[in-house]
Amino acid sequence: MIRINITKQLRLAHENTQLSIGTTIPSNTITAIYGPSGAGKTTLLKILAGLVQPEQGAVEVNGRIWLDTARRVCLPPQQRSIGFVFQEYALFPHMTVQQNLQFAAGKNGDKSYIDKLLHLVKMEAFIHAKPSQLSGGQQQRIALIRALVRKPQLLLLDEPLSALDDAMRHELRTELYHIQQQLQITTLLVSHDISEVYTLASNLIHLEHGKVVFQGEPQQLFGAASLSSTLQLTGEVLQVIPDGAIYTVEVLTGKNIIRVTAGEHDIAKLQTGDKVCLFVKAYTIALKKMNG
Ligand SMILES: Nc1ncnc2c1ncn2[C@@H]1O[C@H](COP(=O)(O)OP(=O)(O)OP(=O)(O)O)[C@@H](O)[C@H]1O
């Protein structure tokens, strides 16, 4: 369990906004931090990592105080048990994959755990490669397991898949899901991508202007019940494809095939040939079956 209660003044181009967050994050799950650009998502991760100081507040992780401004406690980043992955891969270019991982693990690193992680992301064959010899997706796989080699209590992911092309993003998203399921590590994932949030997260924090405007299951925010129908299209379901914990529905609308991410409740009783309504909702497309 992570308890966060912090305030920090954000420097915005035209106005001053306060990041003011009081929340509790469950252990062993993925929590998505979602919201528009400038909402404070990255700053929140940096505060948890100890890279940015809030003016006031406290952070408690699994019963241990990492930050308490009232008691002048502020653990430096190296004393916080975290793994951090950014959008860019940030591997050491002069080191091989193995050297990058061993360096991150430290002198007393667990070699068999490194091997286990390499196996999880199917990268055993690349241990002697330099980052420049790897694709973007392969580099990000290594960046991900590098963040895990010290068995951190908290994994912080800041749009880790956004630099990848669609196919690679999709593949890595599935791997990330399986890694988290296997290791049960408490993970905070900053993402703009609703399909990512839907697929990966069981808990969602929606930030706007530095404040939590929603916390709960992603389906509650993006589900059909809360759709606002600013734009609607009708279409015909071509197929419903299971995709990890969620579904991708292919819908033919005019001459276009649109892929829509949907939850269990959205696809209930949905079959090929059904007529559906597509809505733009919270920056993405959602669907609802027509006539029941
Ligand atoms: N250390 C800091 N101190 C004060 N303000 C900061 C600090 N770092 C960033 N900011 C400001 O806080 C605002 C929010 O930045 P942040 O990077 O947290 O947003 P974000 O929600 O992650 O946005 P994006 O999705 O574009 O990455 C920005 O306007 C930024 O200028």
Automatic annotation (TrEMBL):
Keywords: ATP-binding, Nucleotide-binding. GO terms for molecular function: ATP binding; ATP hydrolysis activity. InterPro entries: AAA+_ATPase, ABC_transporter-like_ATP-bd, ABC_transporter-like_CS, Molybdenum_import_ModC, P-loop_NTPase, Transp-assoc_OB_typ1. This is ATP-binding cassette domain-containing protein. Signal peptide: none annotated. It comes from Ilyomonas limi. Residues 1-234 form the ABC transporter domain. Pfam families: ABC_tran, TOBE.
